[in-house]
Amino acid sequence: MPEHTVASFDQELKEIGRKVVEMGGQAERLVADSVTSLIKRDIALAQKVVLVDATVDQMQREIEDRAILVIAKRQPVANDLREIVSAIRIANDLERIGDLAKNVGKRVIAIEGEYHPQKLVRGVEHISDLVLEQLKEVLDAYAARNEAKAVEVWGRDGAIDTMYTSLFRELLTYMMEDPRNISVCTHLLFCAKNIERIGDHATNIAEIVYYMVSGQNLPDRPKADASSETTLAFPGRSVQG
Amino acid sequence: MPEHTVASFDQELKEIGRKVVEMGGQAERLVADSVTSLIKRDIALAQKVVLVDATVDQMQREIEDRAILVIAKRQPVANDLREIVSAIRIANDLERIGDLAKNVGKRVIAIEGEYHPQKLVRGVEHISDLVLEQLKEVLDAYAARNEAKAVEVWGRDGAIDTMYTSLFRELLTYMMEDPRNISVCTHLLFCAKNIERIGDHATNIAEIVYYMVSGQNLPDRPKADASSETTLAFPGRSVQG
């Protein structure tokens, strides 16, 4: 390629990368705001989350369009192709993260005014802290092209899954103790599941960053989420793991 | 392009399309099997669903890799580019559909042997019938490049959402009536939500098919799913919509 073409291709790659970082920041804010709205019962903030998710969707479309255009125009190979394909994939995960945060926001609005002891949300708060940390770290790993950091994030996925499985049981217990908790706890179960899935997407992004930087795939993910397989039988019946 | 190049490009497009159709058939079977395993409490079938999902994931990767390669090699524009980008997007939705079916399978395994009156799954069966029909139709619309059929599928999304919202309330009622139902109903709520989301992905695919064939976007989707906003307050409290 002539030198000016190389330079402007480089510019295009950088621009796509910049957009992914920007989108990551926006998605991260959405998740943080959705969790804050849940813990503080801040309905106005929850409504904002529901609205702002549309901008994350828009960003995903822009990144995808631009990336496809660059692939067609520049026919990139090796590192450059990995960089662009990774941008498409990360934007896809970030869009899903935005959707999940939006769903948390909707549920916060739903349970407004319901019987709602603060202890019920404490477990959700803990898992959210961990997930937000993972999301922040993996976005840093992407921005810095740091594969070691991506592997660190990837290795911590199991902790979130374990926490979610125990939270799942805890919320079922609250429902059994007091039927007034059933409606709120059901929404909290979905909120917790959404947040756990945000953690899964952070792990996906870690895998993509690793692939982008190294050209290699990480091995199969160690899964510790047993909640789909978890039941809390009625007292007197055996508990299945 | 020289004639033989055009012919082989055509061949590549057709091959990608064929793979998407094949993947659609596989995803459809997974969904049908997961629902059957739930209704018949067929653990062996549920286990098969959990295993077979990996082949759907593999198909998605193949379609994406091949599509990116064709974009880089052929620099397609207009119709051809839309065709390839649509294949990537549909494969993405189908992969998510496979994941959701797999999660239903996991939950079927979880609730084996639990107190589990058959009436509890009846509502899930109804919504599944509707979703499977939507999925089948939209895959037909894709295979036939039939935009009118895509619009029909798209327009029926609201019916699934309405049914899901009512099922959500029904399952909460069963939990409140008898705490022995709480554990199973919680898993059924997640199954129902998964199936409703499969319906959402079918609607996404309808939008993609419409865009692929016409080059236009459908307007914003009419949403009728109010379950995130639905609570069923404890008897004696007001019901919030």
UniProtKB/TrEMBL annotation, chains A, B:
InterPro entries: PhoU, PhoU-like_sf, PhoU_dom. The keyword Transmembrane does not apply. GO terms for cellular component: cytoplasm. It is found in: Cytoplasm. One of its GO terms (biological process) is negative regulation of phosphate metabolic process. It comes from the Bacteria. Pfam families: PhoU (PF01895). Residues 221-241 are annotated as: Disordered. The keyword Transport applies. Plays a role in the regulation of phosphate uptake. Belongs to the PhoU family. PANTHER family: PHOSPHATE-SPECIFIC TRANSPORT SYSTEM ACCESSORY PROTEIN PHOU. Homodimer. This is Phosphate-specific transport system accessory protein PhoU. It comes from Xanthobacter dioxanivorans.
